[in-house]
Each structure stands twice: as structure tokens, then as C-alpha cells.
Design brief:
The chain is mainly alpha-helical. The protein is built from 14 helices and 3 strands. 65% of the residues lie in helices and 4% in strands.
Length: 366
């Protein structure tokens, strides 16, 4: 059943989060290119008949017996780390003042990866790649005129991709007047709004909702926020929003307190990606945005997405432990023999102040 599958993925995801927590920033930089190569191979493999599994006309999964993995979710993390490592190295070399060093090879690399995802087809995941790219460029401090140009180009590309497929374009236009097409293209939005409205302030009770039984499509994944609104009411919805608000604050705080450009850029971009994905999901569930099929991080059903979210969470916690004040506090506690019970139970190493690779003396700026 779906509950057993999700429980299995959570059981696997928690150790993955623990591994991510134990890895130091240097290890993440070492893993950049192996992860990138594996992601590209998997994205190519999923397009091959017999390897990729097709569902509802889309070939997005690789069948591994009892489990199906979605390579595009792994590719998100790979591109996040690759982009952060690339921009951090260029910043350390002092070459980001020239536009070509900002754009190359970052933009072609993202275009290639997103293009493979579009072929599946999966426009929703493509939007996630755009969020990651914009997050990287924002955190590295791209000049406003260039950032605006990239943003406009990304919006134009999404509109063209939506227009190229009639069903996508119908979704783009239906959200403006969903009740006029309540039995066709507006069905998802209308039923989601009905579910939210029926919950009232406190909801009908956990597990007591009826909209998930054939009324709200994809109730356990795309529209899980509507089910939360029905069963837990406005209180549950506000709690979800507060948790993502806390994630946004914490992520940006970690980025602000780290001097290393790799850590700062990766943490900031990861926060923008996860919180931006949540905004898009909640936006289309509430009828404020077109339906894109982007899941709600940590909550929507989807094994690979959950595993990668746990990994990113572990990475953020690892980078938080490498902040200068955190390192000083941890070392002081170690000398006094006062390490916390959680650190001992999780067998976490004492954090070390991360020193990024230095520029070689003979390197020249170009």
C-alpha cells in the first residue's frame, strides 16, 4: 500500500539525512562531479524504452523491483552542488566580474539537464531546476540587469514550453476562471478549493476527510495540501506555512553566517528551491497559480523526492555545524567533556572550521 511505501522511504530517508549530517563541506565538493555524471546517465537511461517506466504518457521513473526511482529528483541535488561549486571557484579566482564567466558553463549545463527532463516530459521538475538556477545566481550576487535578463528568459521559456503542449496551455489559462470549466480542465483546482473550504477553522479531523476518496485528484501527492486543509483546517494550513517559513529563515541564517562562498551559495539556493517549490504547490492548490504537478517538499507522496529532501536537510544541518560560532561552541564543550547527548547518540564528529581551497599563486585571472 501507499502507506507502507512511504514508511519504507522514511525509514531509508532518515539514515540518508544522518549521512548528510556527518559529511563535511569538503566531502560535498568532492562528490560534485560523480553525482553530476550519475545524474546525467540516469536522465538519459530513463528515456530508453525498457529502462524508463511510462506512467500517464510520461517516462520519468526507473524500475528497481519493488521501488521506482525518479532520476530528475537526484539531478536537482547534483545540479545544486555543481552550480555552487562552479560559482564558488570562479568567485575565488575573481573571474565573476565578466558576464561570460557568470553564464558559462552554468547556463548551458542547466539547459542540458532541464532539456532531458522536458523530454520525459516533466515541466514541473523543469521549474524546480529554474528555481535552483535563480537561487544560485541570486546568492552569488549577479548584477541586477543580468539577473533580470535571465529571469525574463526563463519565464519566456516556460511559456513557450507550455504553449507547445495543448494540455499545458489549457492549465495555464484555466486557473484564471476554474469554475467555468469545473468538469474538465478546472476540475483539479475546483475540487481542491472545495476540500480546503470544507475544513473550516479546525478541520473535520485527521483521517476523517472524504475528498481524498475519488474527488480530489492526486490527493496524496500534488493536492496533499488540500487534504491537510480539509482534515486539519486553517490551523493545519497555517502550521505548514509556518514550518516552511522557519525553513526559509533558518536556511538564510545559515547562509549569512558562513563566509565560504560554496556553503553560502548552496545553502541559499537550496532554501530558495525548497521554499519556492512549496510556494508553487500551495499556490496552485489554492487557485493562485496554474497547476504544474510540483510536489510539496517533505509532505507529498513520492519516494525519490522524499529521499533527496532528507539528504538536503542533512546537508543544511552539516553546514550549520560548520559555522564559526558553532565550531567554537562544540570544541569548548569537547574540552569540558560536555558534548550533548544527541551528538553522542548520533555519533557526530566534532565540527571543524571549513577552509575552502585556496587559489594557487601562479593562477592568472582571465
Amino acid at each position: 500500500t501507499q502507506v507502507v511505501k512511504e514508511a519504507l522511504f522514511i525509514a531509508v530517508g532518515l539514515p540518508i539525512c544522518w549521512i548528510g549530517l556527518r559529511l563535511p563541506p569538503r566531502a560535498y565538493r568532492f562528490l560534485v562531479y560523480p553525482m553530476l555524471g550519475l545524474a546525467l546517465v540516469a536522465l538519459l537511461a530513463v528515456l530508453i524504452p525498457g529502462i524508463g517506466v511510462g506512467v500517464y504518457g510520461a517516462r520519468r521513473w526507473i524500475d528497481l523491483g519493488p521501488l521506482q526511482l525518479q532520476p530528475s529528483e537526484f539531478a536537482k541535488v547534483a545540479m545544486l552542488l555543481w552550480g555552487g561549486d562552479l560559482l564558488a571557484r570562479k568567485q575565488q579566482l575573481g573571474t565573476l566580474r565578466r558576464p561570460r564567466h557568470l553564464f558559462l558553463p552554468l547556463l548551458p549545463g542547466f539547459a542540458l539537464t532541464a532539456g532531458l527532463v522536458v523530454l520525459e516530459p516533466d515541466l514541473g521538475t523543469t521549474l524546480c531546476f529554474i528555481l535552483i538556477l535563480l537561487g544560485l545566481l541570486w546568492m552569488i550576487g549577479m548584477p541586477a540587469r543580468y539577473f533580470t535578463g535571465v529571469l525574463v528568459a526563463m519565464i519566456a521559456a516556460v511559456v513557450l514550453l507550455a504553449y507547445a503542449a495543448p494540455y499545458r496551455w489549457q492549465r495555464m489559462t484555466t486557473f484564471l476562471h476554474p469554475f467555468q470549466q469545473a468538469q474538465s480542465s478546472g476540475f483539479h483546482t475546483v475540487e481542491g478549493l472545495y476540500a480546503l473550504a470544507s475544513g473550516g477553522f479546525f478541520g473535520v479531523g485527521l483521517g476523517q476527510g472524504t475528498s481524498k476518496y475519488g474527488w480530489v485528484p492526486n490527493a496524496n501527492s500534488d493536492y496533499v495540501f488540500a487534504i491537510i486543509g480539509e482534515e486539519l483546517g486553517l490551523v493545519g494550513c497555517v502550521a505548514v506555512l509556518a514550518l516552511f517559513g522557519l525553513l526559509a529563515y533558518t536556511g538564510m541564517r545559515i547562509a549569512r553566517r558562513n563566509a565560504d562562498p560554496f556553503v553560502r551559495v548552496v545553502v541559499g539556493a537550496a532554501t530558495i528551491w525548497l521554499c519556492g517549490q512549496a510556494v508553487i504547490n500551495i499556490g496552485y492548490v489554492t487557485g493562485l497559480l496554474p497547476v504544474t504537478g510540483i510536489p510539496l517538499p517533505f509532505i507529498s507522496a513520492g519516494g525519490t523526492s522524499l529521499l533527496m529532501s532528507f539528504f538536503v536537510l542533512g546537508m543544511l544541518l552539516s553546514f550549520a555545524r560548520c559555522e564559526t560560532p558553532a565550531v567554537a561552541t562544540a570544541r569548548r564543550a569537547q574540552r569540558r567533556g560536555q558534548r550533548s547527548r544527541a551528538e553522542r547518540w548520533l555519533r557526530l564528529p566534532v565540527p571543524v572550521q571549513y577552509a575552502p581551497p585556496r587559489r594557487r599563486g601562479g593562477a592568472r585571472r582571465r
